[in-house]
UniProtKB/TrEMBL annotation:
It is found in: Nucleus. Residues 145-170 have a biased composition (Pro residues). One of its GO terms (cellular component) is mediator complex. This is Mediator of RNA polymerase II transcription subunit 31. GO terms for biological process: regulation of DNA-templated transcription. Belongs to the Mediator complex subunit 31 family.
Length: 204
């Protein structure tokens, strides 16, 4: 009996294994479609379109939104170019948000807040996230060391010795001459010489 039951169960198991769906391209097309839909969720206008067309009233569609949460895993999140879609996917898990997005005013509000986030993201990151440079410690200015005084000029050892029989040269004196500047010395003496020459001509 046991052998007959086993033979009866084998075709059932084999038939269920044959019914398992397998993507012909190993899931590439499905991956691309789900990635495209996920990134469409970054647009509040698209979410407003889904709400107005009553997609959020379909339980199968709500289950699909829960299934798409696998995109938050590290091996999938690296393919997403618009990370706001992950934030809106989390909000779409809430029924109040799904109902609110059917109103045009809420769609405009979400779109405006998204724009302000993009506009100020870089400044906010630089201001609050990046580390600031520490202030430099204030140090008292120390006076620079004075350069050493220049060496005194070399003093000549002396004038060369005069030749034999010549008196030594007198050292230059720093005292001024008693004769004032501008006087023409020997002016009277030139007059006396001229008078002597005239007398000689007369006598001769």
């Amino acid at each position: 009996m046991a052998s007959s039951k086993e033979t009866e169960m084998e075709p059932v198991a084999s038939s269920s294994a044959k019914n398992v769906y397998k993507d012909p391209d190993d899931g590439r097309q499905r991956f691309l479609l789900e990635l495209e839909f996920m990134q469409c969720l970054a647009n509040p206008t698209y979410i407003h379109y889904l709400a107005q067309n009553r997609y959020f009233e379909d339980e199968a569609f709500i289950g699909y939104l829960k299934y798409l949460q696998y995109w938050q895993r590290p091996e999938y999140i690296k393919f997403i170019m618009y990370p706001h879609c992950l934030y809106f996917l989390e909000l779409l898990q809430n029924v109040n948000f799904r109902n609110a997005m059917a109103h045009p005013g809420n769609k405009e509000l979400a779109h405006r807040q998204q724009f302000f986030y993009w506009k100020n993201y870089r400044n906010n990151r630089l201001r609050h996230i990046l580390p600031r440079a520490l202030p430099e410690p204030v140090t008292e200015a120390t006076p620079a060391a004075a350069p050493p005084p220049p060496p005194p000029p070399a003093v000549p050892s002396g004038l060369p010795a005069p030749p034999m029989g010549m008196p030594p040269a007198a050292a230059p004196s720093s005292t001024h001459s008693p004769m004032p500047y501008g006087m023409n010395p020997g002016r009277n003496e030139m007059r006396n010489v001229g008078m002597d020459r005239r007398k000689r001509k007369k006598d001769g």
